[in-house]
Amino acid sequence: MTEAELFLALAKLLLIKSMATNAPSSEHVPSLPEASTESGNKERWLIIDNDAGIDDAAAMVLAGSLAKSYGVVIKALVVSYGNVGQEHVLRNNAKIRQHMGPDGISIPILPGHDKPLVATAGHASFWHGLDGLGDAKGIPQGPFPLPHDGPVEGGSQDMIARVTEIAEEAASKGHELIYCVLGPMTNLASAVRVNPKLKSLIKRLVVMGGCGNARGNDSLTGEFNVLTDPEAASIVFATFDNVEVVSWELTLVHSVPWPIFDKWRSLAPQHPAIDFLDKVLHLAYVERRVVHTDSYKYNGAIICDALAIAYVLEPKLAKKSKSVWVGVELEGTLTRGQTVVDWGTSQQAGKHGDKNCTWVIDIDQTVWEEMFARIGVGESSSSKPSSE
Ligand code: BDR
Ligand code: CA
Question: Ligand 1 center to residue 305 CA distance, Å?
Fold first, then answer.
């Protein structure tokens, strides 16, 4: 890729407003949400469907670090494709879960689809590295225990069966099942087509994806996760009636200011999980920072998937949301993959369908920064990756 192409590619990903630069208090642990284990026997079970991916990695370590504090139990990592091919995503999940807290190593990894339902997959290795983990030097390369030795054929029925099992168990025990998608929505679309009962068994569905103002990152109007498999996204929005969306533009205006990002990175020597992420994020968030700042007034780290997981753990992070109808454009010479939102302002308002989505419009930046600063710190300090 030439320098000019790299700039163009980065332009798709980076557009940011200046953020406050106050360092967070490292003492402050964000308050527990109402649905925590402390408030009753009801647990919150979480499945993370991902295409890791450097920001997926930060998100998953965040989940591992803080889940317990928020009464959340991580039940499975569902593996897709997207930022890089599934073979890499699978290995990356094995590497990342080593850093997802003391119990991370026992979280099941479930390989799902390795390609879109209809579309042809493109990847984003220019940003995530050829291996999807920033081509980081000095991180353990395994061997890690994997559910498969090589590439996994598309449409894993095992994954769907396991997800259904977890969902049924959660329901039978009165727990809340949260499904969070940090990549293309292929696995969920496929699972709910095979097992329509998942629609009612998944109590909360949070997706990082889409853009509500038609300013995309992967095309002029398309956000990467949706555009990678528009048919799957369309099935998800048409099937579920309360998809919670953490959109591309939300993550743009809620970047992590560089001073906070760097203060967090400086803790790498004391925390193996931060050390791992520091290496994984280095290419995109350190080496290329000056390019971002000069070209796009990029004053903080846009870590999309981590913001989505923070919101999963702490729903009160959302200061403002709007209930809307969302559909996905499947045709269009310029707009395929666009998330089309009925904001209630057009003459066609209300004509396309019932509201199916809670669109997060604003989040509490202070709490987000506090949660970010706990990534890799929240875990027990005695937990060390087993293969280091
Ligand atoms: C999304 O695209 C991917 O590259 C990131 O991991 C994130 O999930 C942002 O558009
Ligand atoms: Ca992702």
Answer: 7
Q: At what angle are helices 289-296 and 3-13 packed, to 10 degrees?
A: 70
**Helical segments of 174-245, H only:** 186-194, 198-201, 224-228, 230-239
Give the model's pLDDT for residue 350: 95
Most informative mutation of 305, 312, 339 for ligand 1 (most atoms within 8 A of CB): 305
Q: What is the pLDDT of residue 260?
A: 96
337 phi/psi in degrees, rounded to 5: 90, 5
Let me know how long the chain is.
388
Give the pLDDT score at 143: 75
Contact yes or no for 237/337 (Cβ under 8 A): no
Which residues are within 8 A (CB) of 122 and not within 5 positions of it... i.e. 6 or more apart?
218, 228
pLDDT in tens, 117-147: 998 888 999 899 999 999 998 888 877 777 7
Give the chain's end-to-end CA distance (angstroms, integer).
34
Query: Nearest Cα to 80, choosing from 98, 58, 56, 101?
Result: 56
pLDDT at 147: 73
SS3 131: coil
The answer for 66, left when phi > 0, alpha when psi is -120 to 50, beta otherwise, is alpha
Using an 8 Å Cβ cutoff, are 59 and 306 in contact?
yes
> What angle is formed at CA 83 by the lines to CA 137 and CA 143, rounded to 5 degrees?
45
Q: Is the CB of 81 under 6 A from ligand 1?
A: no
User: How many other β-carbons are positioned within 10 Å of the β-carbon of residue 343?
Assistant: 12
Structure tokens at 365: 């930046």
**Cα–Cα distance for residue pair 339/327, rounded to 1 Å:** 6
Low-confidence ranges of the chain (pLDDT < 50): 1-39, 380-388
Residue 225 CB less than 6 A away from ligand 1: yes
CB of residue 70 inside a 6 A radius of ligand 1: no
Q: How far apart are CA 72 and CA 66, in angstroms?
A: 8
Beta strands (DSSP E) in the chain are 44-50, 72-79, 109-111, 176-181, 204-208, 243-246, 256-257, 300-301, 318-328, 339-342, 357-363
| Contact yes or no for 300/258 (Cβ under 8 A) | yes
- The DSSP bridge partners found for residue 362 are 320
Q: What is the CA(222)–ligand 2 centre distance, in A?
A: 15
CA of 52 to the centre of ligand 1 (A): 9
pTM across the whole model:
0.88
Tokens of 108: 């099941």
- Cα 92 to chain centroid distance, Å, stands at 14
